[in-house]
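Lab notebook page, bench 4
Experiment: in silico fold of construct C2
Operator: M.H.
Input chain length: 681 residues
Purpose: comparison with the prior construct
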Amino acid sequence: MKCLIRGFVLLILFTICLQIPAEATSPNVVISQIYLGTGNVVAAQAGTGTIAAVPTPASQYIELFNRGTITTSLSGWSIQYAAEGLNTWQVFPLSGSIAPGQYYLIRTTTTSGNVSLPSPDLRINLSLPVTVGKLAIVSDSTALDTGCPSNSTRLVDLLGYGNTLCYESRAVPAPDVTELLAPVRKGGGCIDTDDNYGDFSKVTPVFRNTSSALNFCGGTSAPRTFSLSDGGTTSFQSAGTGSILTTGYARIQADSTSVAPSGVAVYGLRSGGTLISETGVPVATLVTSGSLYVEVSGSIKTGLAITNPNNDDVRIDYDINPANNLQFTIKGSLTVSANTQIAKFLDEWPFVLGGVTGVLTFTASLPVGITELRGFMNERSELLVSTLPVLDSSAGISMLPAYVPQFAVNGGWTTELILINTLDNPISGTISFTDPSGNPITVPIGTVTQSSVEYTVPQKRTLKFRLPNSGATLLTGAIRITPVSGDRAPVPLAVFANVAGGVRVSEATVLGLQGTQLRTYVEKSNVGSIASIQSGLAIANASTATANVSLEAFQVNGTSTGLTSKQTIPVGGKIAKFADEIFPSLPSSFKGILRITSDNAVSVVGLRARINERKDFLITTIPVNQEVSAGSSAEVIFPILIDSGGFSTQFILINTVSGQTSSGNIRFRTIGGQIMDLPVQ
C-alpha cells in the first residue's frame, strides 16, 4: 500500500516537520470498514404522528477483508491504533485466518445503540474517536514506534480518517456525529488504489463477519451472451453443488440495436438433499420509486434484495404505513455503495422491523433494481420462499375490477387475499368469489362462509382476508374485486398454501396480469416422478363477455410446435391446467413459450409444480409477460442470485417483442459488484 509521504513545509516563522508514513506492503488483507458509533440520535417526533426508524449498532467495530486469492493466517499479526499526535500505538493481537473474499469482524467499545452486531471474530477494548484516527494492520505484534509508521516490511494496511496526518494519499472523511454512516471500502472490500479517500465511501454500516457470504475479487469469467428470436427463450442453471453460499446479482444488457428480454429467476432451496421450496422472481427494471407489501409477524418474514448498478452511492428513503395504525408512519433510510447489493429480511439490520404489516413506499436517488421475497417458517423449521411484487408508483390505477385468477381453499389448501392501497385516500368495493363456471361460490372467510364481502382499505394501507382450510372438499375459482363507482381498485395479491400431514409444504403468491396477448415460459420433465417439473396456467375472464382464448406452444427458438388449443371461459369463470393437459401430445421433455391470445381481457398467472424427494407437491408462480410490438434496450437486472449452500438459480430469458430479436449479454456480479465466476449449465 502506498501512503502519502508528507514533506517539510516552510512557514513564515518556523518549519514544521510532518509525519512521514512509508509504503504499506499488503498480502491483500485490508481494513474494509469502520463504524465509529455515529448516528445515534433521538428521532421520535412526539405528537407529529411520525416515528423515525433509527436503529443503530450497539458497538463500534472494525472490519478486515481478504481481497486476495489465498487464505491468510492472522496468527502473530495485530491491529494497532494510535491517538493523533502520539507515537505510541496500542497493539491488539489477531488470531485465526481469512479466506479469499472473507470478512473478519472486530468489535471494539459499546455505544448507546440498540442493535447487536453479529458474532464478532475478535473483541478488543478500544474506543475510537469520532473525528480523527489512524489504524494499521501489522504483520507482527510489536508496537509501531512513530506517529506514522516507517517500516514498510511490517505494515500491511493503513487507514486514516478525519483530520489525521497519517493516511494513504488522502484521509477518509469522518462521518458527522449525527450521520448513521460508516466508511466502507468500495467493491465490497475489493477496491484498493492506495488512496483512503478514493477507496472508501460513507454508506449505511454493513454487518459482516467470517460467516457472511463471500465476496471474491478478481473474477475472470466472460459475460454469457444470448440471442432470442421473436417468441424465443433460453434457460440455464447454476450448479448449486458447493457447500459455501454464494450470492450476487446479474446485469442483463441488450446490444445497442436490440431490445432487452423479459425473464424469470427460479430459486430452489434444498435441505438434506430434499427440495423444500422454489419461487419464480421476475427480472427487475431499474426504478427510482415504488411500493411494496411488507409483513413481519410470527412465522412470516419479508426480505428485500436491492442492487445499485450505478457508479455512485445511492440513498433510499422509505415510509412504512402499518395496517393496524392509521396515525403513525415509520420512516427510514439507507445508503448503498456503488455497484453493490444488499439482501436482508426486514427484521434484520439495517431495517430491524418487528410486528408490522403494511405498505412500504420508497424513493431512490438513482435507479435501482429491487426484488421482494416472502419467507414462511413451517412446522419443520423449513423456510418456504415466495415472491412479492414491486409496484410501480408511476403506473395508473384502474377504476375497472381487478382479478385474482386462482384461489384454492379446503382439502389441505388455504388462501390469503391481500388488498394493497397505494393511494392517499381510502378505497372501497366488493370482493366476489366465483367457481370455474363463473357462478358465485360460498367459501370460508375467517369464521363465516360467504360468496362476497365488502371492503374498505385505508389510504396507503392493506387489508387481509383469510380463507382457512376448514373442510375436506377442495374449492377453487377466481376472485373479482370491484371498486365502488368512481373509486380505484386496490392491487389484489393472493397467497395460497398447501398443507399435508399438518405441515405447510408449499406456498405461492398470485398476482394476475391482465391483457389479450401474453407470453410465459413453460417446462415439462419427468411428470409423475420425483424431481418432476410441470408448468401450467390459471386464466380468469376479466371482461363482461365470454373470453375465447387461443393457446399455442413455441419451441425455444421461437418456432411453433404446431400444438394449439382453444378455451372458452364464461364471464366470471376461469381455467387452471398444466401444459400437458392443454397439449396432450406435448413432448415428455419440453422447454419453450406458451402464447395466450384472447378476444376479451383475461387475467393470467403462470404455475410451476414439482414433486420433491419426500413426494410433497410444491407449487410456485411464474411471471406472465405482455406481448408488445416495441421494446426497450434499457438494462434489466436479477437483483439477487443464489448458489450453493443448498441453493441454486435457474435463469430464464424470454423475448416478448413481436418481430424483433433480443440479443446481448448477462453479467454475473458478486455482492461487491465484482466479476463472479458462476458455473452455469
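Observations: The helical segments are 196-199, 579-582. The radius of gyration is 28 Å.
Next step: discuss at group meeting.
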